[in-house]
Amino acid sequence: MNTTNKIKVAIVDDSALIRSVMTEIVNSQPDMEVAGVAPDPLVARELIKRTNPDVLTLDVEMPKMDGLDFLERLMRLRPMPVLMVSSLTERGSEITMRALELGAVDFVTKPKISIQSGMREYTELITDKIRAAARARIRPRSLHAPGAGTGTGTAMPVLRAPLNSSEKLIIIGASTGGTEAIREFLMQMPSDCPGILIAQHMPEGFTSSFARRLDSLCKISVCESQGNERVLPGHAYIAPGHSHLLLTRSGANYMTRIEQSEPVNRHRPSVDVLFRSAAQAAGKNAVGVILTGMGKDGAQGMLEMKGAGAYNFAQDEASCVVFGMPREAIAIGAAHEIAPLQALPGLVLGHLATHGGRALRV
Protein backbone atom coordinates (compact mmCIF):
# COMPACT_ATOMS: atom_id res chain seq x y z
CA MET A 1 0.00 0.00 0.00
CA ASN A 2 1.11 3.64 -0.38
CA THR A 3 3.29 5.45 2.14
CA THR A 4 0.44 7.57 3.58
CA ASN A 5 -1.17 4.32 4.84
CA LYS A 6 -4.39 5.39 3.19
CA ILE A 7 -5.95 3.26 0.48
CA LYS A 8 -5.74 5.25 -2.76
CA VAL A 9 -8.87 4.71 -4.86
CA ALA A 10 -9.29 5.62 -8.53
CA ILE A 11 -12.92 5.99 -9.66
CA VAL A 12 -13.87 5.32 -13.27
CA ASP A 13 -17.49 6.02 -14.24
CA ASP A 14 -19.12 7.88 -17.12
CA SER A 15 -21.71 9.45 -14.76
CA ALA A 16 -20.56 12.68 -13.12
CA LEU A 17 -23.14 12.14 -10.38
CA ILE A 18 -21.87 8.65 -9.56
CA ARG A 19 -18.27 9.90 -9.58
CA SER A 20 -19.28 12.63 -7.13
CA VAL A 21 -21.15 10.25 -4.82
CA MET A 22 -18.34 7.69 -4.87
CA THR A 23 -15.78 10.42 -4.16
CA GLU A 24 -17.78 11.62 -1.16
CA ILE A 25 -18.11 8.05 0.17
CA VAL A 26 -14.39 7.27 -0.18
CA ASN A 27 -13.14 10.56 1.22
CA SER A 28 -15.46 10.22 4.24
CA GLN A 29 -13.36 7.28 5.44
CA PRO A 30 -10.26 7.96 7.55
CA ASP A 31 -8.29 5.12 5.95
CA MET A 32 -8.88 5.88 2.27
CA GLU A 33 -8.78 8.73 -0.23
CA VAL A 34 -9.66 9.33 -3.86
CA ALA A 35 -6.53 9.37 -6.02
CA GLY A 36 -8.49 10.68 -9.00
CA VAL A 37 -11.58 10.18 -11.16
CA ALA A 38 -12.04 9.41 -14.85
CA PRO A 39 -15.12 9.45 -17.11
CA ASP A 40 -13.89 6.65 -19.38
CA PRO A 41 -11.13 4.04 -19.72
CA LEU A 42 -8.96 6.22 -21.94
CA VAL A 43 -8.66 8.89 -19.26
CA ALA A 44 -8.41 6.14 -16.63
CA ARG A 45 -5.32 4.73 -18.30
CA GLU A 46 -3.43 7.98 -17.76
CA LEU A 47 -4.86 8.35 -14.25
CA ILE A 48 -3.52 4.93 -13.25
CA LYS A 49 -0.07 5.73 -14.63
CA ARG A 50 0.00 9.06 -12.79
CA THR A 51 -1.43 8.08 -9.38
CA ASN A 52 -0.66 4.35 -9.01
CA PRO A 53 -3.86 3.62 -7.05
CA ASP A 54 -4.32 0.71 -4.67
CA VAL A 55 -7.87 -0.03 -5.83
CA LEU A 56 -9.81 0.86 -8.98
CA THR A 57 -13.60 1.10 -9.06
CA LEU A 58 -14.77 0.51 -12.62
CA ASP A 59 -18.19 1.00 -14.21
CA VAL A 60 -19.07 -2.06 -16.26
CA GLU A 61 -20.70 -0.11 -19.09
CA MET A 62 -18.94 2.97 -20.49
CA PRO A 63 -18.39 4.85 -23.75
CA LYS A 64 -15.19 4.99 -25.84
CA MET A 65 -13.94 1.61 -24.61
CA ASP A 66 -15.97 -1.26 -23.24
CA GLY A 67 -15.32 -1.81 -19.52
CA LEU A 68 -14.55 -5.48 -20.14
CA ASP A 69 -12.01 -4.70 -22.86
CA PHE A 70 -10.32 -2.23 -20.55
CA LEU A 71 -10.34 -4.69 -17.64
CA GLU A 72 -8.84 -7.46 -19.77
CA ARG A 73 -6.01 -5.20 -20.93
CA LEU A 74 -5.45 -3.87 -17.42
CA MET A 75 -5.21 -7.33 -15.85
CA ARG A 76 -2.77 -8.40 -18.54
CA LEU A 77 -0.52 -5.34 -18.49
CA ARG A 78 -0.90 -3.86 -15.00
CA PRO A 79 -2.75 -6.28 -12.68
CA MET A 80 -4.38 -4.50 -9.74
CA PRO A 81 -7.42 -4.86 -7.47
CA VAL A 82 -10.55 -3.86 -9.38
CA LEU A 83 -14.02 -3.44 -7.88
CA MET A 84 -16.72 -3.43 -10.55
CA VAL A 85 -19.70 -1.09 -10.19
CA SER A 86 -22.67 -2.70 -11.91
CA SER A 87 -26.20 -1.73 -12.82
CA LEU A 88 -29.06 -3.88 -11.53
CA THR A 89 -29.99 -5.20 -14.95
CA GLU A 90 -29.69 -8.58 -16.65
CA ARG A 91 -27.08 -7.17 -19.01
CA GLY A 92 -25.25 -5.62 -16.07
CA SER A 93 -25.18 -8.93 -14.21
CA GLU A 94 -23.95 -10.87 -17.27
CA ILE A 95 -21.13 -8.36 -17.81
CA THR A 96 -20.25 -8.49 -14.12
CA MET A 97 -19.93 -12.28 -14.20
CA ARG A 98 -17.53 -11.98 -17.12
CA ALA A 99 -15.57 -9.24 -15.30
CA LEU A 100 -15.04 -11.55 -12.33
CA GLU A 101 -13.73 -14.22 -14.70
CA LEU A 102 -11.31 -11.65 -16.12
CA GLY A 103 -9.87 -10.93 -12.70
CA ALA A 104 -12.01 -8.30 -10.96
CA VAL A 105 -11.89 -8.89 -7.19
CA ASP A 106 -15.54 -8.13 -6.46
CA PHE A 107 -18.45 -5.91 -7.45
CA VAL A 108 -21.11 -3.62 -6.04
CA THR A 109 -24.29 -2.30 -7.57
CA LYS A 110 -24.65 1.39 -8.36
CA PRO A 111 -25.90 3.45 -5.41
CA LYS A 112 -29.56 4.47 -5.41
CA ILE A 113 -29.04 8.20 -5.15
CA SER A 114 -32.70 8.93 -4.49
CA ILE A 115 -32.85 6.72 -1.39
CA GLN A 116 -30.81 8.65 1.17
CA SER A 117 -31.88 6.37 4.02
CA GLY A 118 -29.94 3.53 2.44
CA MET A 119 -26.72 5.46 1.83
CA ARG A 120 -25.20 4.65 5.22
CA GLU A 121 -25.62 0.91 4.58
CA TYR A 122 -24.31 1.33 1.03
CA THR A 123 -21.31 3.30 2.31
CA GLU A 124 -20.45 0.49 4.74
CA LEU A 125 -20.81 -2.09 1.99
CA ILE A 126 -18.65 -0.41 -0.61
CA THR A 127 -15.93 0.74 1.80
CA ASP A 128 -15.69 -2.77 3.27
CA LYS A 129 -15.28 -4.11 -0.26
CA ILE A 130 -12.61 -1.51 -1.07
CA ARG A 131 -10.68 -2.52 2.07
CA ALA A 132 -10.95 -6.18 1.11
CA ALA A 133 -9.85 -5.41 -2.45
CA ALA A 134 -6.80 -3.50 -1.18
CA ARG A 135 -5.71 -6.65 0.70
CA ALA A 136 -6.67 -9.07 -2.06
CA ARG A 137 -4.25 -11.36 -3.86
CA ILE A 138 -4.46 -10.77 -7.58
CA ARG A 139 -4.22 -14.15 -9.27
CA PRO A 140 -2.48 -14.58 -12.63
CA ARG A 141 -4.78 -13.86 -15.57
CA SER A 142 -4.46 -17.45 -16.89
CA LEU A 143 -6.33 -18.80 -13.87
CA HIS A 144 -9.39 -16.74 -14.73
CA ALA A 145 -10.12 -18.21 -18.14
CA PRO A 146 -12.95 -20.74 -18.10
CA GLY A 147 -11.43 -24.20 -17.99
CA ALA A 148 -8.01 -22.93 -16.99
CA GLY A 149 -6.37 -23.71 -13.70
CA THR A 150 -8.63 -26.67 -13.01
CA GLY A 151 -6.06 -29.43 -13.16
CA THR A 152 -4.46 -30.69 -9.99
CA GLY A 153 -1.88 -32.91 -11.61
CA THR A 154 -3.49 -36.03 -10.13
CA ALA A 155 -6.42 -38.11 -11.26
CA MET A 156 -9.73 -37.22 -9.69
CA PRO A 157 -11.43 -39.95 -7.67
CA VAL A 158 -14.33 -41.24 -9.76
CA LEU A 159 -17.68 -42.17 -8.27
CA ARG A 160 -18.59 -45.69 -9.38
CA ALA A 161 -22.31 -45.16 -8.81
CA PRO A 162 -24.36 -42.05 -8.01
CA LEU A 163 -24.84 -41.37 -4.34
CA ASN A 164 -28.45 -41.08 -3.24
CA SER A 165 -29.55 -37.64 -2.05
CA SER A 166 -30.26 -39.25 1.33
CA GLU A 167 -26.55 -39.95 1.67
CA LYS A 168 -23.64 -37.53 1.22
CA LEU A 169 -23.93 -33.82 0.42
CA ILE A 170 -21.39 -31.08 -0.28
CA ILE A 171 -22.12 -27.71 1.36
CA ILE A 172 -20.13 -24.68 0.14
CA GLY A 173 -19.84 -21.10 1.43
CA ALA A 174 -17.90 -18.19 -0.08
CA SER A 175 -17.74 -14.41 -0.43
CA THR A 176 -15.09 -12.13 -1.99
CA GLY A 177 -13.38 -14.03 -4.80
CA GLY A 178 -15.86 -16.84 -4.40
CA THR A 179 -17.47 -16.75 -7.82
CA GLU A 180 -14.27 -17.89 -9.49
CA ALA A 181 -13.35 -20.27 -6.65
CA ILE A 182 -16.77 -21.93 -6.89
CA ARG A 183 -16.44 -22.16 -10.68
CA GLU A 184 -13.04 -23.82 -10.37
CA PHE A 185 -14.38 -26.25 -7.75
CA LEU A 186 -17.57 -27.18 -9.60
CA MET A 187 -15.84 -27.68 -12.95
CA GLN A 188 -14.00 -30.64 -11.42
CA MET A 189 -17.13 -32.29 -10.08
CA PRO A 190 -18.20 -35.45 -11.98
CA SER A 191 -21.76 -35.75 -13.23
CA ASP A 192 -22.58 -38.29 -10.52
CA CYS A 193 -21.27 -36.28 -7.56
CA PRO A 194 -23.42 -35.77 -4.46
CA GLY A 195 -25.88 -32.89 -4.40
CA ILE A 196 -24.25 -29.52 -3.67
CA LEU A 197 -25.72 -26.49 -1.86
CA ILE A 198 -23.96 -23.14 -2.17
CA ALA A 199 -24.22 -19.81 -0.35
CA GLN A 200 -22.24 -17.07 -2.13
CA HIS A 201 -22.58 -13.48 -0.95
CA MET A 202 -24.18 -11.83 -3.96
CA PRO A 203 -27.03 -9.36 -4.51
CA GLU A 204 -30.42 -10.25 -5.91
CA GLY A 205 -30.42 -10.35 -9.70
CA PHE A 206 -26.86 -11.63 -10.00
CA THR A 207 -27.19 -15.17 -8.65
CA SER A 208 -29.33 -16.27 -11.61
CA SER A 209 -26.65 -15.10 -14.07
CA PHE A 210 -24.00 -16.79 -11.94
CA ALA A 211 -25.92 -20.07 -11.95
CA ARG A 212 -26.52 -19.96 -15.71
CA ARG A 213 -22.85 -19.33 -16.36
CA LEU A 214 -21.79 -22.26 -14.17
CA ASP A 215 -24.42 -24.53 -15.72
CA SER A 216 -22.94 -23.85 -19.16
CA LEU A 217 -19.41 -24.74 -18.00
CA CYS A 218 -19.83 -27.70 -15.66
CA LYS A 219 -20.60 -31.40 -16.07
CA ILE A 220 -23.18 -31.11 -13.32
CA SER A 221 -26.44 -29.14 -13.48
CA VAL A 222 -26.31 -25.78 -11.68
CA CYS A 223 -29.35 -23.66 -10.85
CA GLU A 224 -30.47 -20.82 -8.63
CA SER A 225 -32.53 -22.48 -5.92
CA GLN A 226 -36.25 -21.81 -6.01
CA GLY A 227 -36.91 -23.66 -2.76
CA ASN A 228 -38.76 -26.96 -2.18
CA GLU A 229 -36.47 -28.81 -4.59
CA ARG A 230 -35.36 -32.35 -3.95
CA VAL A 231 -31.57 -32.32 -3.70
CA LEU A 232 -30.32 -34.67 -6.41
CA PRO A 233 -26.89 -36.11 -7.25
CA GLY A 234 -25.14 -34.23 -10.02
CA HIS A 235 -26.97 -31.01 -9.17
CA ALA A 236 -25.82 -27.80 -7.45
CA TYR A 237 -28.26 -25.32 -5.91
CA ILE A 238 -27.15 -21.70 -5.41
CA ALA A 239 -28.79 -19.49 -2.79
CA PRO A 240 -30.76 -16.69 -4.50
CA GLY A 241 -29.45 -13.22 -3.75
CA HIS A 242 -32.63 -12.23 -1.92
CA SER A 243 -32.93 -15.19 0.49
CA HIS A 244 -31.20 -17.58 2.83
CA LEU A 245 -30.82 -21.14 1.53
CA LEU A 246 -31.45 -23.98 3.99
CA LEU A 247 -31.22 -27.75 3.81
CA THR A 248 -34.20 -29.70 5.17
CA ARG A 249 -35.44 -33.30 5.10
CA SER A 250 -38.65 -34.82 3.87
CA GLY A 251 -38.63 -38.50 4.75
CA ALA A 252 -35.55 -40.03 3.13
CA ASN A 253 -35.01 -37.04 0.82
CA TYR A 254 -33.05 -33.86 1.28
CA MET A 255 -34.91 -30.72 0.22
CA THR A 256 -34.03 -27.05 -0.28
CA ARG A 257 -35.80 -24.22 1.50
CA ILE A 258 -35.42 -20.49 0.97
CA GLU A 259 -36.54 -17.85 3.42
CA GLN A 260 -36.30 -14.09 3.65
CA SER A 261 -35.63 -13.82 7.37
CA GLU A 262 -33.28 -11.15 8.70
CA PRO A 263 -29.67 -11.00 7.42
CA VAL A 264 -27.10 -12.91 9.48
CA ASN A 265 -23.60 -11.41 9.80
CA ARG A 266 -25.03 -8.63 7.58
CA HIS A 267 -25.63 -11.15 4.80
CA ARG A 268 -28.62 -12.71 3.12
CA PRO A 269 -27.87 -15.31 1.89
CA SER A 270 -25.68 -16.21 4.86
CA VAL A 271 -23.21 -19.07 4.91
CA ASP A 272 -23.85 -19.59 8.63
CA VAL A 273 -27.55 -20.15 7.96
CA LEU A 274 -26.81 -22.77 5.28
CA PHE A 275 -24.12 -24.52 7.34
CA ARG A 276 -26.31 -24.66 10.47
CA SER A 277 -29.18 -26.16 8.50
CA ALA A 278 -26.79 -28.77 7.09
CA ALA A 279 -25.61 -29.62 10.60
CA GLN A 280 -29.20 -30.17 11.70
CA ALA A 281 -30.52 -31.95 8.60
CA ALA A 282 -27.49 -33.93 7.35
CA GLY A 283 -25.05 -34.25 10.26
CA LYS A 284 -22.27 -36.70 9.40
CA ASN A 285 -23.57 -37.04 5.81
CA ALA A 286 -22.42 -33.50 4.98
CA VAL A 287 -19.02 -32.35 3.74
CA GLY A 288 -18.43 -28.64 4.38
CA VAL A 289 -16.23 -26.40 2.22
CA ILE A 290 -15.45 -22.78 3.13
CA LEU A 291 -13.79 -20.69 0.43
CA THR A 292 -12.29 -17.24 0.00
CA GLY A 293 -14.17 -14.29 1.47
CA MET A 294 -13.99 -11.34 3.85
CA GLY A 295 -15.54 -11.42 7.30
CA LYS A 296 -16.45 -14.37 9.48
CA ASP A 297 -19.73 -15.64 8.01
CA GLY A 298 -19.74 -19.43 8.00
CA ALA A 299 -17.20 -20.05 10.76
CA GLN A 300 -19.69 -20.79 13.54
CA GLY A 301 -21.97 -22.72 11.22
CA MET A 302 -19.05 -24.88 10.10
CA LEU A 303 -18.15 -25.54 13.73
CA GLU A 304 -21.73 -26.71 14.27
CA MET A 305 -21.38 -28.98 11.23
CA LYS A 306 -18.22 -30.46 12.74
CA GLY A 307 -20.01 -31.01 16.04
CA ALA A 308 -22.78 -32.85 14.18
CA GLY A 309 -20.26 -35.19 12.54
CA ALA A 310 -19.62 -33.47 9.20
CA TYR A 311 -16.14 -33.41 7.65
CA ASN A 312 -14.93 -29.91 6.71
CA PHE A 313 -12.39 -28.35 4.35
CA ALA A 314 -11.07 -24.77 4.32
CA GLN A 315 -9.26 -23.01 1.48
CA ASP A 316 -5.70 -22.06 2.41
CA GLU A 317 -4.41 -18.50 2.68
CA ALA A 318 -2.12 -18.59 -0.35
CA SER A 319 -4.92 -19.45 -2.81
CA CYS A 320 -7.58 -17.15 -1.30
CA VAL A 321 -8.33 -13.77 -2.83
CA VAL A 322 -9.26 -12.67 0.71
CA PHE A 323 -8.34 -14.95 3.62
CA GLY A 324 -11.13 -13.92 5.98
CA MET A 325 -13.87 -16.53 6.24
CA PRO A 326 -11.53 -19.55 6.01
CA ARG A 327 -9.18 -17.99 8.57
CA GLU A 328 -12.03 -17.54 11.05
CA ALA A 329 -13.22 -21.12 10.56
CA ILE A 330 -9.69 -22.46 10.98
CA ALA A 331 -9.10 -20.30 14.09
CA ILE A 332 -12.02 -21.84 15.98
CA GLY A 333 -11.14 -25.39 14.93
CA ALA A 334 -14.04 -25.88 12.50
CA ALA A 335 -11.96 -27.28 9.62
CA HIS A 336 -10.51 -30.78 9.49
CA GLU A 337 -8.28 -30.03 6.48
CA ILE A 338 -6.79 -26.88 4.93
CA ALA A 339 -5.74 -26.96 1.29
CA PRO A 340 -5.17 -24.86 -1.85
CA LEU A 341 -8.23 -24.26 -4.00
CA GLN A 342 -6.85 -26.39 -6.83
CA ALA A 343 -6.56 -29.39 -4.51
CA LEU A 344 -9.94 -29.09 -2.77
CA PRO A 345 -12.11 -30.87 -5.38
CA GLY A 346 -9.84 -33.92 -5.35
CA LEU A 347 -9.68 -33.97 -1.56
CA VAL A 348 -13.45 -33.72 -1.22
CA LEU A 349 -14.01 -36.46 -3.79
CA GLY A 350 -11.30 -38.55 -2.17
CA HIS A 351 -13.00 -38.23 1.21
CA LEU A 352 -16.32 -39.21 -0.34
CA ALA A 353 -14.66 -42.16 -2.09
CA THR A 354 -13.58 -43.60 1.23
CA HIS A 355 -16.46 -42.44 3.43
CA GLY A 356 -19.37 -42.31 1.01
CA GLY A 357 -21.20 -45.39 2.19
CA ARG A 358 -21.02 -46.97 -1.30
CA ALA A 359 -18.36 -48.68 -3.36
CA LEU A 360 -16.31 -45.96 -5.02
CA ARG A 361 -13.32 -46.28 -7.31
CA VAL A 362 -10.26 -44.06 -7.07
Automatic annotation (TrEMBL):
Do you know which Pfam families this protein is assigned to? CheB_methylest, Response_reg
Instruction: Tell me what PTMs the record reports for this protein.
Output: Phosphorylated by CheA. Phosphorylation of the N-terminal regulatory domain activates the methylesterase activity.
User: Which positions are tagged coiled coil?
Assistant: none
A GO CC annotation recorded here is: cytoplasm
Which reaction(s) are listed as its catalytic activity?
[protein]-L-glutamate 5-O-methyl ester + H2O = L-glutamyl-[protein] + methanol + H(+); L-glutaminyl-[protein] + H2O = L-glutamyl-[protein] + NH4(+)
For the modification 4-aspartylphosphate, the affected residues are D59
Q: Which residues catalyse the reaction? A: S175, H201, D297
Under SUPFAM superfamilies, the record lists: CheY-like (SSF52172), Methylesterase CheB, C-terminal domain (SSF52738)
Q: Which SMART domains match?
A: REC (SM00448)
Q: Which compartments does it reside in? A: Cytoplasm
Top-level EC class as recorded in UniProt: hydrolase
UniProt cross-references to PROSITE patterns, sorted A to Z: CHEB, RESPONSE_REGULATORY
Show where the Response regulatory domain sits: 8-125
BP term (GO), one: chemotaxis
The record places domain CheB-type methylesterase at: 163-355
**Keyword Phosphoprotein assigned:** yes
What is the purpose of this protein?
Answer: Involved in chemotaxis. Part of a chemotaxis signal transduction system that modulates chemotaxis in response to various stimuli. Catalyzes the demethylation of specific methylglutamate residues introduced into the chemoreceptors (methyl-accepting chemotaxis proteins or MCP) by CheR. Also mediates the irreversible deamidation of specific glutamine residues to glutamic acid.
Question: Which protein are we looking at?
Answer: Protein-glutamate methylesterase/protein-glutamine glutaminase
